[in-house]
């Protein structure tokens, strides 16, 4: 058994129409990606939570998985007729053989090195070395498995600067990776907060998998207290809005680490936290920045 993979080049205006039409015709799955992904013409799209996406990529590729006995040309002709188009889009089709997808997927993911001692290790791998600190997390989770530059920046900061016994708040904890890293690097009590109920499930599962005790809360249920270290890997606009809350959660003399910030937005975040912190650029990577500072007032 196998499938047919159909790839159609389209404009941003046509991509969503094609996606909907493919599903109506019986496609098993449909996705839209940048037609120039992996090249110098790749077009990054950045949107803050709650903002509408104005458009897709100017040059998009619509990918559809079709039943094995499908005639790709007939599918494309049916799309053109159904959409009332007077042109046939450029497309390619290829046979996809059945495979052991679990084993194939696992083979594509190796441990991620954060430092000589800190690694993110899939559960099916052995630890990369004796004495290493391993965050046992599997790919496929929502944002927060260590591959994104903002997550790595925060992990590197924790690895270099976390003082054992420090009480930590991870605000916007997602998969719980930063909270888990802090605990495994020697933090005292650690609390994670996120607005997404699914994050509570993922974080608790990951903490259990890593055999660490961390308390995770939705914002309204989180205890009102201060911490020696607050970490927040979110995005610029939420970080600016949360400035009074996160600053208030940091004890005087305590530290804050912020990421999810585009380099060109650093000054906006520094300005929002200026009443409490003199934030400095700790590091940057691939257009993303990590800020840190000590609460002075």
List keywords for this structure.
elongated; 297 residues; 7-stranded mixed sheet; 2 domains; 4-stranded antiparallel sheet; Rossmann fold
What would you report as the Rg, rounded to the nearest angstrom?
A: 23 Å
- CATH level 4 superfamily of the largest domain: Vaccinia Virus protein VP39
Number of domains: 2
Give average pLDDT, whole number.
87
Following the backbone from N to C, one meets helices and strands in this order, namely EHEEHEHEEEHEHEHEEHHEHEE
CATH-derived topology of the largest domain? Rossmann fold
Number of strands: 14
Distance between the termini: 66 Å
Relative strand content: 25-35%
Separate helix tally: 9
Name the quaternary structure: single chain
The geometry reads as: elongated
CATH level 1 class label of the largest domain: Alpha Beta
CATH architectural label of the largest domain: 3-Layer(aba) Sandwich
What class, by secondary structure content?
Answer: alpha/beta
Described by strand count, sense and barrel closure, the largest sheet is:
7 strands, mixed
Unreliable residue runs: 45-54
Trace the largest sheet across and list its strands.
Answer: 10-9-8-11-12-14-13
Binding site for S-adenosyl-L-methionine: 151, 172, 194, 233
GO molecular function, one term: transaminase activity
Main location: cytoplasm
Subcellular location: Cytoplasm
């Amino acid at each position: 058994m196998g499938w047919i993979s159909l790839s159609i080049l389209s404009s941003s205006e046509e991509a969503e129409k094609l996606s909907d039409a493919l599903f109506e015709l019986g496609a098993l799955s449909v996705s839209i990606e940048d037609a120039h992904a992996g090249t110098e013409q790749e077009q990054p799209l950045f949107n803050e939570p709650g903002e509408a996406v104005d458009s897709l990529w100017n040059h998009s590729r619509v990918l559809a998985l079709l039943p094995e006995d499908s005639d790709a040309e007939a599918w494309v002709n049916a799309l053109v007729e159904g959409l009332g188009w007077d042109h046939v889009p450029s497309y390619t089709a290829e046979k996809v053989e059945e495979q052991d997808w679990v084993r194939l997927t696992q083979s594509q993911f190796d441990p991620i090195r954060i430092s000589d001692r800190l690694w993110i290790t899939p559960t099916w791998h052995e630890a990369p070395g004796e004495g290493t600190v391993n965050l046992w997390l599997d790919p496929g989770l929502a944002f927060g498995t260590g591959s994104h530059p903002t997550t790595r920046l925060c992990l590197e900061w924790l690895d270099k600067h976390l003082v054992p016994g420090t009480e930590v708040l991870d605000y916007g904890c997602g998969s719980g990776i930063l909270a888990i890293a802090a605990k495994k690097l020697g933090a005292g009590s650690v609390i994670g907060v996120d607005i997404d109920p699914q994050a509570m499930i993922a974080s608790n599962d990951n903490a259990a998998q890593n055999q660490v005790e961390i308390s995770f809360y939705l914002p309204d249920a989180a205890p009102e207290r201060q911490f020696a270290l607050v970490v927040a890997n979110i995005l610029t606009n939420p970080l600016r809005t949360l400035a009074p809350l996160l600053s208030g959660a940091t004890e005087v003399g305590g530290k804050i680490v912020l990421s999810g910030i585009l380099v060109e937005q650093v000054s906006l975040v520094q300005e929002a936290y200026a009443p409490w912190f003199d934030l400095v650029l700790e590091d940057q990577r691939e257009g993303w920045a990590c800020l840190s500072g000590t609460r002075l007032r």
